[in-house]
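Long-time lurker, first post. I've been practising inverse folding by hand and with some scripts of my own, and I keep getting stuck on stretches where the structure tokens seem ambiguous. Below is the full token string for one chain I'm working on. Before anyone asks, I'm not after the true native sequence, just a reasonable design that respects the backbone. If someone could post their per-position residues I'd love to compare against what I wrote down in my notebook.
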């Protein structure tokens, strides 16, 4: 069994979630998406969900103190023993430092930070065209990855919906926030020698092949 501990880094809409679904299947590791954790809390109407929604709807980051403890807890669950993929965390230097501390405490190290990138126009088109299944959360794109039947999930026939933060204005804010607060993490992990830069403008399958090939000689 190979143990893979990964971070997926990249701007909104670049394809982190799409690649994450395929990578976790390939390596049989849990997919930890802070965005998904917040969205399920919003759906369940929890206090955390209510707080997070205020920031998410504006395209802003949820404050570090609400995010870090969730990830710390999640990493101590048994399924993370065989590795994990963090999607959308860390997103600030402060979060990255907190993660480093936690991993040191656990006596483990990250293997790679997969940094997927694409131009702003591509990001906006991808985010705006994204549709998600109400029941299973599978992600589609009206142009690049359409479902077989319009507006219905291929897997369970669930209705597809658009995320509240996938309107053009909010996507533009999310990209700005990424550039200011998250992009500095590329240098942070470059210095640690674990960054893997991937061209996110390629088709979904090609991006996946590139990642798996590069991780193969881990
Ligand atoms: P989060 O849910 O993580 O959103 P995000 O980072 O903005 O990224 P997205 O999920 O929008 O995009 P993605 O890269 O996953 O793209 P996808 O694969 O879906 O976070 C949401 C919010 O939660 C944040 O704004 C913040 O408020 C909060 N939050 C979360 N984590 C936080 C943290 N750590 N700290 C503070 N706040 C936090 O693909 C997009 C579309 O493109 C899909 O339709 C897909 O089918 C299509 N597509 C994908 N790849 C390709 C390709 N190669 N070619 C063509 N189409 C493609
Ligand atoms: Mg995502």
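-- Answer (accepted) --
I ran through it position by position. Result:
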């Amino acid at each position: 069994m190979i143990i893979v501990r990964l971070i997926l880094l990249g701007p909104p809409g670049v394809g982190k979630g799409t690649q994450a679904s395929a990578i976790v299947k390939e390596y049989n590791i849990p997919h930890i998406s802070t965005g998904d954790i917040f969205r399920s809390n919003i759906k369940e109407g929890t206090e955390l969900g209510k707080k997070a929604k205020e920031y998410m709807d504006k395209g802003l980051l949820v404050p570090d103190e609400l995010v870090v403890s969730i990830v710390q807890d999640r990493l101590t669950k048994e399924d993370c023993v065989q590795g994990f993929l963090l999607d959308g965390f860390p997103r600030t230097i402060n979060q990255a430092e907190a993660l480093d501390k936690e991993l040191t405490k656990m006596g483990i190290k990250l293997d790679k930070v997969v940094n997927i990138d694409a131009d702003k126009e591509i990001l906006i088109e991808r985010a705006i065209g994204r549709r998600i299944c109400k029941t299973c959360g599978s992600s589609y794109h009206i142009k690049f990855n359409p479902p077989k039947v319009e507006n219905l999930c291929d897997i369970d026939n669930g209705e597809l919906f658009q995320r509240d933060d996938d309107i053009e204005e909010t996507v533009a804010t999310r990209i700005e926030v990424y550039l200011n607060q998250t992009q500095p993490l590329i240098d942070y992990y470059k210095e640690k020698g674990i960054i893997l830069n991937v061209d996110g403008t390629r088709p979904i399958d090609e991006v996946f092949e590139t990642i798996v090939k590069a991780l193969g000689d881990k």
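A couple of notes from the structure itself: The pocket of magnesium ion (ligand 2) is lined by residues 16-17, 35 (CB under 6 Å). The CA atoms of residues 41 and 48 lie 6 Å apart. Happy to go over any region you disagree with.
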